[in-house]
TrEMBL record:
Keyword Nucleus attributed: yes
Organism: Ambrosiozyma monospora (Yeast)
Comp. bias intervals (Acidic residues): 1-14
Protein name (record): Topoisomerase 1-associated factor 1
Keywords: Cell cycle, DNA damage, DNA repair, DNA replication inhibitor, Meiosis, Nucleus
Length: 340
């Protein structure tokens, strides 16, 4: 009887071991299937991302091509090459998704921003013209890319992407400063091409001012102030030269926006037109004087902590902040150059 019981126990143990092995095998197969599903999901997501980037690229290229077709006949080969380079960089930078309205960065967004900045330095600054600034306007870089980047990127920052996203925002701010610089024109010496380009870019800058003041209630400014807040919290002896340059960038941009006004003349030589009418005629379509007024600007600056930021800097000179780097960045209006 004992032998029979032993035999039965042994058989049961074998059966249990078989069941365990079979169960482990099934679990391993399930895990492998889960891994395959996860890999498949990643592949689908990557494919969807590439398709979205391709759609954004095609949409932008088509829109810009249509806009430039009528101008291409009168452009030199050098101008066409330059515009093509800026178009490619703006396209690769990213764009707004049609469905969600969210800005989608391209895979080499930071490099694109830096390359556009190099073109401005190399062509506009060294040759004293505005060809790159004009190409940036043609490609809607400021309104279509830089403003959305500064408004939307802060919400997406986490511990993993903080450094790269902050660098993208800072480089975008550098470009915004370059594209909003005061435009100087000697009407007596300028040829008709330069005068027309001046009028075009003065209108473009009014569009830029309207965009930063009225898009998402001026939240672009809050994002810019947020770039400077960690620096303000540092003791003076811990701030690097780069930190002071960032503060200077912020102040310069705020000053540039204040000083943007429509051109005070038109290309037309109609002498019967009054000065006020000529100024109004240089307002871009869809933008009113109220949209860019000092009341609007003051309200947006106050709401988005710009005024507090400026007051903090001003109160800290020279004790907290280096007057050599920041003291020259004085906030002035076009009508009162003595206003600090």
């Amino acid at each position: 009887m004992d032998e029979d019981v032993s035999d039965i126990d042994f058989e049961e143990q074998l059966a249990q071991e078989y069941e365990r092995e079979h169960l482990n095998k099934n679990n391993q197969e399930d895990e492998n299937e889960d891994d395959e599903v996860e890999i498949s999901k990643n592949d689908v997501q990557m494919k969807e991302k590439k398709e979205k980037e391709s759609q954004l690229r095609d949409s932008r290229l088509s829109r810009i091509q249509q806009m430039n077709d009528n101008k291409a006949v009168f452009e030199s080969d050098a101008e066409k090459t330059l515009k093509s380079q800026i178009l490619l960089l703006c396209t690769a930078l990213g764009g707004l998704e049609i469905t969600s309205g969210e800005y989608q960065l391209g895979s080499d967004a930071l490099a694109c921003l830096k390359d556009i900045k190099k073109w401005i330095r190399m062509v506009d600054d060294e040759k004293h013209n505005w060809d790159v600034a004009s190409a940036c306007d043609d490609n809607e870089l400021f309104v279509g890319d830089l403003v959305p980047i500064l408004i939307q990127l802060p919400k997406k920052i986490n511990d993993t992407n903080k450094d790269s996203y902050t660098n993208i925002m800072l480089t975008a701010l550098e470009l915004m400063v370059l594209l909003t610089r005061p435009l100087m024109l000697d009407v007596e010496k300028a040829d008709i091409h330069r005068i027309e380009l001046y009028a075009k870019l003065k209108k473009a800058q009014v569009v830029y001012k309207n965009a930063v003041l009225n898009t998402s209630k001026g939240r672009c400014f809050k994002s810019i102030v947020s770039l400077a807040l960690p620096i303000l919290a540092m003791p003076r002896d811990q701030r690097s030269r780069r930190d002071l340059i960032i503060l200077n960038l912020c102040l310069t941009f705020f000053k540039n926006i204040i000083r943007i006004e429509p051109a005070d003349f038109s290309v037309s030589s109609n002498k019967t037109t009054t000065k006020i009418q000529r100024v109004n005629s240089n307002l871009p379509t869809g933008i009113s004087r109220e949209d860019i007024s000092y009341d609007t600007l003051f309200h947006v600056y106050q709401k988005n902590k710009v005024l507090v930021f400026i007051q903090t800097i001003a109160a800290g000179i020279p004790k907290e902040f280096d007057v050599r780097l920041l003291g020259a960045t004085v906030i002035t209006t076009p009508h009162d150059t003595n206003t600090n």
